[in-house]
Design brief:
Layout (H helix, E strand, L loop, with lengths): L1 H29 L13 E4 L5 E5 L2 E4 L13 E4 L2 E2 L12 H16 L4 E4 L11 E7 L2 E2 H7 L4 E2 L11
Parallel strand pairs: 4-7
Antiparallel strand pairs: 1-6, 2-3, 3-4, 5-9, 6-7, 7-8
Helix pairs in contact: 1-2
Length: about 170
Amino acid sequence: MKTLVRDGLRLTLCFVRLGLCLSLTFAAQQTFAVEGQSLPKNWKKFPLQKMKVRVIDGDTFDADLNRNGRFSNPEERIRLLYVDTPELKKSHKGKDPKLGLPAKGYLRSVLSKANPVLWVNPKNKTGNFGRLLAVLEVKGHNINLALIKHGHSYFDTRYAWPADFK
């Protein structure tokens, strides 16, 4: 009887994992369905193609911007503007891996495809903890907005108000 229950639990876990993988794949494909979005004007462009990246959560990742093969915190930690995804680690906002993991997977899949580009406001480069504040673009699509449209984040203006973010 114990073996039967254990096998049933394993099978259930396999289906849950399969469902998560399929939903992340579908979400990644939907990224490019987001309508073209105006990106901020006069901001500095940082192409990320062929650059080492490490995703922290759905709105934060590290990028080897100086291309030395290492991540230099906080100089190379990027915080996406106008979004706030559920936390994966304990914080004052709590911890929500159920919603945070799909957001992290979505950002990871977006960064692994095409030629991602960061747009940084030269007047407001860094936020709390010295992280680089940016809008992420892939194939002309605003990924910050896509995170909101796909339900991974809510709109957040703690770091800046999007004056030219339509």
